[in-house]
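User: Need the bound-state model for magnesium ion:
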Amino acid sequence: QAKAAGRNRLVFFDPQMQADVMARATMENELRIAVNEQQFELFYQVQVDGNRRATGAEALLRWHHPVKGWVRPNDFIPLAEETRLILPIGQWVLQSACQQLAVWGRRSETEHLTLAVNVSALQLAQADFVEQVLATVERTEANPNRLKLELTESLLASDIDTIISKMDALRAKGISFSLDHFGTGYSSLAYLKRMPIEQLKIDQSFVRDILLDHNGNIIPKTIVALGKSMGLTVIAEGVETEAHWRLLVEMGCSAHQGYLFGHPMPVEEFEKSLSPVDLSRG
Ligand code: C2E
Ligand code: MG
Ligand code: MG
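Assistant: Bound-state model below.
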């Protein structure tokens, strides 16, 4: 039967598998349309210091799907990476984030805010990544000292020398780096020492566990100590309750992000949440 269908044709024997392949193809098409029609938006989630004051935000990508509504990145970033659509998407993210940062930089109430932007390994691997970022910063007139790029540690494994030289070039222009999902990958301490990073980000899976028992403390405590000894700041993400927050502060963690302080939200809402003063007045 399969042979009769021809050598070069895919033959589906499993209806579920066929359905999966079709769904994937549909989503890939929709993602291409989304890129062309710019169906994306950045949401902003506040980051606070030990006194609970807002120091900045992380930009989190949302896809406004014409039928499904808001789609979160975990449901489309993997496919975007497979299809390399993450490159134009990532460029859009960077451009939008820098535009927002420039707007904040022009108002005294918001000029202190930093903005963290997630960067995928595929973007970082582009030969012209440094030029792209610097051109975007210049074009938008964003302050590079307020821009923070979040890299995922497990994705830094290959071609580390090239990656470090790109990071050095951006760092020299004032841009800083944070290592996202820290502790979940397998970054070598030797690499960590060579990379010009400012911050370690404790993954939310570890934060969730800190109240469980004594053992739940070990990893966050170790990351905080590691950060201190290397002169890096440490930020905890996924902080959902006062109890989690208190414990993290006790551990010496100096920066925090999570639903306790604010959900990711559209920029107008984010700005309103910062202070009772209406910042939209110009
Ligand atoms: P991430 O960078 O680790 O972002 C943190 C995620 O945790 C966000 O999910 C955020 O909404 C969620 N979160 C924040 N506070 C809490 C909390 O208190 N509790 C819980 N349970 N979750 C919390 P989101 O927005 O769905 O993003 C998921 C991931 O998608 C991000 O993880 C990041 O790796 C990736 N991503 C997001 N935006 C971009 C982007 O512009 N480019 C790339 N390449 N990846 C992105
Ligand atoms: Mg992140
Ligand atoms: Mg994270």
